[in-house]
Amino acid sequence: MDKTRPIIILKKKSGHGGHHGGAWKVAYADFVTAMMALFIVLWLLNSSKQVQEAVGGYFKDPTGTAKKVGSNMTGSGENFTLTRDNMPKLKEQLQTAMKQMVDFEKLKSHIEMTVTAEGLRIELSESATGTFFDSGSAKLNGDGKEMLVTLAQELGNLPNKLSIEGHTDSTPYAPSAAYGNWELSSDRANAARRVMQGNGVRADQVTQVRGFADQRLRKPDSPLDPCNRRISLIVQYIVKNNDNDEEDTKPSGKDGQHDDSKMPRAGEKSDSKH
């Protein structure tokens, strides 16, 4: 036995309790994230409407198509330039919004969307007892106001310009009356403009308000038919200028005449005539 071999003594140090893991780090990170979200919400609540729309537009479309939000647009990030290619997208978007109305099932047969040379034509036609306006009056009823507000909130998101038309049937007023179909068609178009501009449509978005009286009947072979009385909203195309890559809003057809490309309303076939 080698007595010169050194003796090694092992000593155990007593320490704190065992390792508790990293669960507390996860909980702390969640807490910090929640606090940050709370501060952002509080900041947004005290920010201007323009800032709120810009932030909302980014989260709805972070790829960049919401770049118009935060300018003088009143949209919420769902802006897109209306062309023939994305017409179905706008049609579907409008139909979805209108379906949220309480009386949509009652009104849907009086709503029609048609592709024309000018853009998307949305027609709100009357019935014998009045659908959107009081009979013989330019005063909107409850359904008419709700419909126009719904459309205004959707169309106000677009950079496209709008035209509004008023049409009547051929029922004549008394010869001695100072008020007639020309006045009624113009007044109804203006009434629609006022409601829409007060509920989302920009002040510079409406380019034309036109009254046609009974000169453009929906059913020329039945001039007294109530469906000839209608309001038409035209969402004009934006035509790109290839020379300088700028966009210009203008009718794309000659003299604003209609073409034969039509879109039926939801669940029905289009049989409109202009």
Number of domains: 2
CATH-defined fold name of the largest domain:
60s Ribosomal Protein L30, Chain: A
* Number of helices, where a helix is a run of at least 4 consecutive DSSP H or I residues: 6
Question: How many runs of DSSP E, i.e. beta strands?
Answer: 7
Oligomer: single chain
User: Main sheet?
Assistant: 5 strands, mixed
Strand content: 5-15%
* Strand order, sheet with most strands: 1-2-5-3-4
Strand/helix succession: HHHHEEHEHEEEE
Morphology: rod-shaped
Classify the helix fraction into a percent range: 25-40%
Would you identify the CATH architecture of the largest domain? 2-Layer Sandwich
How does the SSE layout of this entry go?
Elements: H1 23-45, H2 49-60, H3 87-98, H4 104-107, E1 111-115, E2 119-125, H5 142-155, E3 162-167, H6 181-197, E4 206-211, E5 230-236, E6 238-241, E7 246-249
Parallel strand pairs: 3-4
Antiparallel strand pairs: 1-2, 2-5, 3-5, 6-7
Helix pairs in contact: 3-5, 5-6
Q: Which key terms come to mind for this protein?
A:
274 residues; 60s Ribosomal Protein L30, Chain: A; 2 domains; 7 strands
Question: Nutshell version of this structure?
Answer:
By secondary structure, this protein is α+β, with helices and mostly antiparallel strands. It folds into 2 domains: 24-79, no CATH class; 87-256, OmpA-like domain (60s Ribosomal Protein L30, Chain: A, 2-Layer Sandwich), CATH 3.30.1330.60. The chain is built from 6 helices and 7 strands.
